[in-house]
Amino acid sequence: MTERKEADPVGSFGIAKMKRDHDLRSLGDRYLQQFITFRAISSLVEGPPDKQLQFDRMMRESTAMLDEHEDEELRNVLIELASAMAGVVDGELRDPETNEILPNKYQGSKEAQIRINSPEVSAIVSAMVGRTLHHIFAPDKSELIAQAIVGLLVSSFGALIGSVARHSFKVNKVALEKSEHEFTLEELSKYDSIDEARNELINRRVDALLGGGVNDWSSWCKRVLQFDLPSLTSDWPVMREIFARRNIIVHNSGRVNNRYLVAVEDSGVSLPKDTKVGSEVETGKEYVDSSIQRILALGMCLVYSVWRKLYPKQVKEAAKWLVGRQEVMIYDEMWLAAHQISEYLKGAPMKRSDECMSKVYDWLARMQFEGPEPIHQEVVDWDTSGLDVIFVIYKECFFGNVEKVVRLISANQGHSGLSKYDLAMHPIFAEYRAHISSERTVEADVREDREEADQNQ
User: Fold this and answer.
1) pLDDT classification of 45: cutoffs 50, 70, 90
2) Alpha-carbon dihedral angle through residues 348, 349, 351, 356, given to the nearest 10 degrees
3) Which residues of 406-420 are buried (b: 16+ CB within 10 A; e: fewer)?
4) Among residues 6, 27, 14, which one has the least CA distance to residue 307?
């Protein structure tokens, strides 16, 4: 008889053996890529008015095709339109060339009759008027894009919660034993195996979980995984406001309701004094960008925490994975997300090299919103003895010792772990790149002077 091996215990439940490349890694990587995409989309919130530029170009091209008589008619019609609009608002109409006030037959009048003979002129005027009215009465597009992104952020985090829960139920069979969902004999007869019935039970549990809100998700994490969502971030009150804002965007057209006020008040976030039921909240580019980074960091820390909880023997591997994703954030200049992950990883079990890399990413991030002074003493106290030379190079980069960095890189080519891509793109080597570029410019100038001198001899 073969001896049955018991699963490794974690908390109150057993853990099944896991393949090395399990689902959590791919879940986290897909989540990261989603949020990189969201950040690219967020550039549209205050991006260039490409459509307007296209329209202006189209109008110039259209008017260039008019003959002399049509061009004159278009000018007269536009003056008539301007005169009519000025009359409605009792305004002044001025000649565009002389700036003199013109007599306005529509002054104080609400009616205007303008005749257009040419079909080409009629089409151009219709397009101009239609476009003008569209821009006057259309809602703010940047606000609509911002609100849509906030909705996507929270929905993506909800989807991650569902995926993590599904994975946890599959690994932790005990968590399903006390389910409130029961099968009748008739229902059980529809399944070919216990595994098929178990999968259906998992689907029901996940659907029930996603039917709740962020408080329900946090309670589930605490009950099943022994940690709650607020423990994954130092900014939970701000996070809670983002979730509450998503609800009024989706369910109340972006207008404040009592539920939003209560949620934000309970979280401790301060709102503008004029915020009341029925008022609109503005969701601009800065808000969207910080929300993207905060919810990205929250999701990545969630995946890492579930990983180390379900697979305690891989805790250092989980940390290495998360630090590696911090590097992606640094290259994408997602400083807030990188900083929050470093904060969460402090004291976590990991290799010393991974701990140092996370520290480097945190310093880089903090320099962006605090400046170099707050981190200076921390860098001075950083003991790099026994570490790879790359960390010595990083330390000198923080001090701004560019010439020493150049010597270290030159002396350790092929041994420092630095690739040409790192030197060309990594934010920590910005001063190094500027120095190299300046030296090459000087060398080029000297070479040019020499060539010119040789030609003159």
Assistant:
1) low
2) 20
3) bebbeebeeebebee
4) 27
Contacts of 211 (CB under 8 A, 6+ apart): none
State how far the Cα of 235 lies from the Cα of 226, in Å rounded to an integer. 20
Cα separation, 154 vs 214, in Å, equals 9
Residue 299 has pLDDT above 60, yes or no: yes
pTM: 0.72
Helices (H) and strands (E) in the chain, counts: 19, 2
Residue type, 222: K
Angle between helices 389-399 and 373-380 (to 10 degrees): 140
Q: From 377, 378, 374, 362, select the one nearest 427 (Cα to Cα).
A: 362
pLDDT at 139 over 60: no
Q: Which helix (H) or strand (E) covers residue 9, if one does?
A: strand 8-10
The pLDDT score that the predictor gives to residue 85 is 56
Conformational region of residue 429, where left means phi above 0, alpha means psi within -120 to 50, and beta covers everything else: alpha
Kindly report, residue by residue over 280-295, the tens digit of the pLDDT.
Answer: 888 888 999 999 999 9
Neighbouring C-alpha atoms within 13 Å toward the C-beta of 218: 14
Inter-CA distances, 280 with 139, 147, 277, 375, 435, Å: 13, 12, 9, 39, 49
